[in-house]
């Protein structure tokens, strides 16, 4: 195994530099500064294999390195092309050349993509490229302690970014993102045994895998929650409770009604009213989701491209995954997604409050009467008042649990969602209660099925379509494309049942190529 200079212990200034003897193999593939023995692969605590980056850069640019160690009287300079050391000038040997220089290592990249003109033409404007460079430099500058960073655009007198080596993490964030962000930070550190982390699951190290994921996530959430509670136990935030851009017609109890979200107070595993949160049932439900995970479909959603909505009535959309085109039941996907969000955020929901509070029985009565009208005359008729009283009694009896676990505060003075909590939730078993409640909550957030547009061209004129339906259709389309599918990409665990009944492959690029070849 080829090896360059070692990295310093974590958190310490880097005392070692690239030595002259390391220069010969510096830009060869699989050269790494991280490992001195094969066993080190199990305990990586750094960013990974930077030697691969130097090898790649030397393939598409002119790369030069100048390095000087503390015990060397001079600095040494070498140039590279296509992974190998090359002469400084034509006719000279391809050996490092002594030169004057400061202690440390400087790496210079010039003529980027000089040998790939089509890639060079793909560059955007200098301003856009510099913005991307600044963003990436800033990200590294925040996390790399004891390393100085500076970034300057060619031709500009001022420096775009300058961070000193002795700057603290907070100072680095202040310099890069401003005082407003830095002043609101709360320090939080959670260190994992390197043997429990797999850093080689993604080529750019953007993702890692680690053991005991549930316990680690739970510990992080609890610690952050307790820190936030200590900082401010009583702050109230005004917020928009609907998805951005969504407009709906609502029945408001007062012209001055407001939606407020209160931060839920959590201290360890015991809530504000003394109810202990039993996490074992939630862990079991999360484990059941993981057991049902369809790995291939989850990967498809995490890297998909949204194509468009096909049918609002059947809630169908098209998306591309790799070289394949899929028809997606986005109602089913939303149901799975919101259920998983409920499990992830269990016991830590924000509270939505109406001022003045909604009357519980009157709200239930509205939903029951709507349900009765939908059923019409027949054997399925039911006593509205009896149903209202039964559901209200169930909710009031369990209001302490609802407030603590789901931030749903029910009072005697206090929709169809509330009405469904009566018959649809299993109140007798803890695990079944959590699951059925969250599934009912997920059902509530699934986008509605919209009526199909008239089929013939004459009746489908824009002016003939109801304004409310047009508005609802625009809202659903916007939310599906710009809110829901991006959310699926970020955190959906696609299940086997979703693959079986919510997805249909309609085309793949290879198959289309074969069709075209026959034509």
Q: Brief description of this entry?
A:
This is DNA mismatch repair protein S5 domain-containing protein. This protein is of the alpha+beta class and 519 residues long.
Overview of the structural elements:
- With 519 residues, the chain is α+β, with helices and mostly antiparallel strands.
- The protein has three domains: 20-183, Heat Shock Protein 90 (2-Layer Sandwich); 195-231; 236-453 and 463-508, no CATH class.
- Helices cover 40% and strands 14% of the residues.
- The chain contains 17 helices and 18 strands.
- The strands form six sheets. Strands 1, 2, 3, 4 and 5 form a five-stranded antiparallel β-sheet that branches. The protein has a four-stranded antiparallel β-sheet with strand order 14-15-16-18.
- A hairpin with a 2-residue loop joins strand 12 and strand 13 (270-271).
- Helix 3 (126-143) runs antiparallel to helix 4 (169-177), helix 9 (330-344) crosses helix 14 and helix 10 crosses helix 13.
- The protein starts with 49 loop residues before the first helix and ends with a helix.
Keywords, separated by commas or semicolons:
alpha+beta, Heat Shock Protein 90, five-stranded antiparallel β-sheet, disordered N terminus, 519 residues, 17 helices, single chain, four-stranded antiparallel β-sheet
């Amino acid at each position: 195994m080829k090896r360059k200079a070692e990295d310093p212990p974590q958190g310490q200034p880097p005392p070692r530099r690239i030595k002259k003897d390391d220069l010969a193999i510096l830009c060869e593939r699989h050269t790494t500064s991280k490992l001195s023995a094969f066993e080190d692969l199990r305990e990586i605590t750094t960013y990974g294999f930077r030697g691969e980056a130097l090898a790649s850069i030397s393939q598409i640019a002119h790369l030069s390195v100048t390095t000087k160690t503390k015990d060397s009287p001079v600095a040494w300079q070498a140039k590279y092309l296509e992974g190998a050391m090359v002469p400084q000038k034509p006719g000279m040997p391809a050996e490092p050349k002594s030169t004057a220089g400061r202690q440390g290592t400087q790496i210079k990249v010039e003529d980027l993509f000089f040998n790939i003109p089509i890639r060079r033409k793909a560059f955007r404007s200098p301003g856009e490229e510099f913005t991307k460079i600044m963003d990436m430099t800033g990200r590294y500058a925040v996390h790399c302690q004891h390393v100085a960073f500076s970034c300057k655009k060619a031709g500009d007198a001022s420096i775009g970014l300058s961070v000193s080596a002795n700057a603290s993490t907070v100072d680095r964030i202040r310099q890069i993102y401003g005082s407003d962000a830095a002043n609101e930070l709360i320090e939080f550190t959670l260190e994992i045994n390197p043997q429990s982390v797999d850093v080689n699951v993604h080529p750019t190290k953007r993702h890692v895998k680690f053991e005991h994921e549930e316990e680690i996530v739970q510990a992080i959430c609890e610690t952050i929650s307790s820190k936030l509670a200590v900082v401010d136990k009583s702050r109230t935030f005004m917020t928009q409770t609907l998805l951005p851009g969504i407009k709906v017609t609502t029945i408001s109890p007062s012209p001055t009604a407001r939606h407020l979200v209160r931060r839920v107070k959590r201290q360890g595993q015991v809530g504000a009213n003394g109810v202990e949160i039993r996490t074992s049932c939630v862990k079991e439900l999360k484990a059941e989701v993981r057991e049902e995970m369809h790995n291939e479909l989850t990967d498809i959603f995490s890297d998909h491209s949204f194509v468009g909505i096909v049918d609002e009535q059947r809630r169908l959309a098209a998306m591309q995954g790799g070289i394949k085109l899929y028809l997606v039941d986005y109602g089913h996907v939303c149901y799975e997604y919101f259920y998983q969000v409920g499990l992830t955020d269990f016991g830590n929901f924000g509270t939505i409050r109406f001022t003045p509070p909604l009357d519980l029985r009157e709200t239930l009565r509205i939903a029951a009467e709507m349900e009765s009208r939908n059923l019409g005359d027949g054997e399925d008729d039911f006593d509205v008042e009896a149903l209202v009283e039964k559901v209200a009694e169930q909710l009031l009896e369990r209001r302490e649990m609802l407030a603590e676990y789901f931030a749903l505060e029910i009072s005697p003075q206090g929709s169809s969602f509330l009405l469904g909590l009566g018959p649809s939730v299993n109140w007798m078993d803890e695990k079944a209660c959590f699951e059925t409640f969250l599934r009912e909550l997920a059902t509530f957030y699934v986008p509605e099925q919209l009526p199909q547009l008239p089929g013939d061209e004459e009746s489908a004129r824009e002016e003939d379509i109801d304004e409310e339906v047009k508005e609802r259709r625009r809202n659903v389309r916007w939310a599906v494309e710009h809110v829901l599918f991006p959310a699926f990409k970020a955190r959906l665990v696609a299940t086997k049942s979703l693959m079986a009944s919510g997805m249909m492959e309609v085309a793949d690029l290879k198959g289309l190529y074969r069709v075209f070849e026959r034509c």
